[in-house]
Amino acid sequence: MQLFHHKLINLRITWLFSDPKPSPRPPKSSSTKKSINFPTPIHANSPHFASVYFVRSQLPMSKMKKLTGSFRYTQWDPCLITCQIVSMQSVCYLSLCVLVAIMEDLTSSTRTLDHIFEYHEIHVRDGEGRSVISAFVLNAIIAAVALWFIVGRTKLCLDFSCTYYGIHLIACWMYNGSFPTTFSWWTLNVACAAITCVSGEFLCLRTELQAIPLSNIGAKVDL
Length: 223
Prior knowledge:
The protein has 223 residues and is mainly α. It has eight helices and no strands.
């Protein structure tokens, strides 16, 4: 009886100090955690990079504009620029001839091309010279309206204004046979070029701002 009692005590001691087996963990359910597959970056040395570059190079210009997010068609077009220059020169010289003819009728002077291309006709000594100056100033405003209709770009107003008056300088140089040296001619043409450029930029800028529908945006915008 005592031997049985000692064996029972030894079994209890062994059970107390022995390491219990770890309980098996429940299997992970696929609904608790989802794996996120990040896209693998394409390196320049990988064969996929060459194929992507080839596909992009074969896209037409209309789709390339959508990819780059450009606002306007910015490709250099010499035919379009030449047509715009010719149109500007034709409209401005036609309006200048009409205005000079009206001023000549008002001052009862002879109609001649000297009032347009002659250096010494630009003066303020009499009514005939002042009428020619008035015709040039009014023509500068008409040239600004022509810039608005023909060019329609704020960034190009300075270029086309300088082109118009630069061609006028060459025409006067060829008409007179000498380079202009009178102060009144240079003052008038520089002032008219400034009026044309500033007025044209103002008109084109108003049109470009109207193309942005800011009124459709709500009062509250999440930033």
